[in-house]
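<purpose> Linking amino acid order to shape
<body> The protein record starts here
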Amino acid sequence: MRKLAVFTGAFALGVFAAQYLLPENYLLPGCAVFLALFGVGWLLPKEKRLRVLLVCAGLSLSLGYDWLYIQAVQGPMLPLADTEQTLTMTLCDYPVETGWGAKVTVRLEGFSRGKAVYYGGGQLLQLCPGQTVTDKVRLQNAAHIREDEVTAFTSKGVFLLAYSKGEAAYGVGTMDSPRWWPLRTGKAMRGVISSLLEGDAAGFLVAILTGDTSGLSEQGRAALSEAGLSHILAVSGMHCGYLYALAALLIGRHRRRLLSACTMALLAFYALLTGCSPSVLRSCVMLAFLLLAPLAQRDNDGPTAISCALFLILLANPFAACSVSLQLSFAAMAGILWLTPKLYRFLTAERKLGRALCFLISSFSATMGALVFTVPVSACYFGILVLVSPVSNLLCLWAAGLVFFSGLLTVGVGAFFPPIARLLGIFPALLIRYILGVAEGMAHLPYHAVYFSNPYLKFWLAYVYILFALAYFFGKKVRRTYAVAVLLASLTLVMTVKLGELRYQSGLDAIVLDVGQGQSVLLKSGEEFVLVDCGSGSSWCDAGDIASRQLRSMGCRTLDYLLLTHYDNDHISGVEGLLARMDVKTLLLSPLEDDSGLQAQVLSAAKACGVKVKIIRSQDHIRFGETTLTVYPPVGEKDDNQRGLSALAMSGTESIFITGDMSCRTEEALLEAYTIPGASVLVAGHHGAKSSTSEVLLEALRPKIACISVGSNSYGHPAEATLQRLAKQGCSIYRTDLHGDIHISLNER
């Protein structure tokens, strides 16, 4: 029996239960219950006793430890939330630029474990890890942003957000300590790469070596994501395996002790260099088990290694259980350990095959093993199932390995001999171009991926897992059983995708997408599509990704029109991502320049993607499908909100009216300038702000349905006054923050 695996597995299970299921006040009683069961376990027969004792001990310890961690680490920091304090903070990383300055992870003086994220001015970018900042800050609980519960911060051990409210003073701190050498090395590597390569070649090489994907273009990121290749850039077992292979090549496999010592030191340095993500920590621990097992005259056991890695990560921070990176990493490795060897034996039938065929089968088996448990996780968090992933991985994984090795060599030489490094850099640059080319080609294939914005797809996924589970338990030795399962899965997938597309067959289908605090309204008529706005003010919402998934689920391959009412970030932030994922024929824009300069950014993205731009200077009528889209030019002058476009989509006697963020006064000016027929549906202006959606507009349009695109915000949207005006008009009110995506079928057939 794998005693250590049973204990650590039970501990991990208890931590996940504590994070996702049990309230804090249930943790100590739960600990006591399992401790009591531990005592009762001693009365069981000998053959069952040890397993029960290990499970109860693990569960009891996990719940007690989770409670203790909350009290000792998170608890002391929470009283600071919603206060202003003058604090001294030590930088834990290099600051990164934001739209308002810079941010960096810090440790607060007097708190040795928990961390905070400090948001300061642009001068912060000049600092290094280990330096100190003393500033008056407004503190906020990182686990709750307004009414939203957030785990992105706490899963990294960050429990407070600190916003600068004073004049910051900077100190030297411990910047010269060896503790920060790995981070300095990472920064130096990025500097060398940027001096040798340009564009996506530089961004890709930085990402595969250090895990920093910020230098990769939106087009590159989108292509890798849509082709199922994003994991190449997530520092994990693959990268640690490359380092081990490099160390073995330099030291020799026969020098086991020296190889083990050097490899573990190298891996520890690399983990710190890449930010100690759960995936790299998991890989380091598992590789350490692999190296130490022969020295201890023990067999290396995969399940024990992976469960111990999870145990150690959760011991450092139980909140890491909510990390998407951790869940994907461990799900992938669990699938590789469980399915890959079985699938390889099944496909080879234990026959002797040529090296090339064995390599193909091995790569395919590893890819399918990694997917078997990560597919549900990806579906839950990202809403995508990449169907071409096995093929794209088969085509690109070998190249990724060569990029890593040749890139590392190029960077090493570049630190001392830049001219020679430029010549060496040609090879990884060509490989990177190949990988991105394959990714872009795969991403443009019809039905290269399916998206869970199709509500039927989750039932199909459950059906497929049940189907293959039955094949495994009742016919695992009969190849024909799996062939039938594959055939049934494929046929039902085609039916599921088509059913999802057939949901939208009205004269005009309107979908107000849930993009948080922003707006994106999708219109479909016949086989043509219009998207009005594509943006979100919520940093965790990618409006471009959300819109493209919905469009593809509806069978759209090319978006006919993208209309931007105005240039506020919460209406255009997703445009670049959308253009990277979807072909767009025509972009409709306001003729007036914006206050923030975002118009130039939109025009640049459109030019890069070859999108036709049409400026609306006068009332324009656009026919798409069975619908006429009337676009009204700006009628206001004061600011961006008043200088925007508005649109009326009419199909038969039904219509939907969209005003962007214009105020009540501008709405009245629009009604004076143009004759607008009544609208069945109104998308409330400015996310339901009290300064929009006037009584005059409501009386003129007399809508039956009002949709409010709104998310977590500090503006008080939607305002009570607006809700009362809509209720007084007799409107049925739907809100994306309460109802999610709002689908309305107009002029139904």
In short: DSSP finds 26 helices and 25 strands in the chain. The radius of gyration is 28 Å.
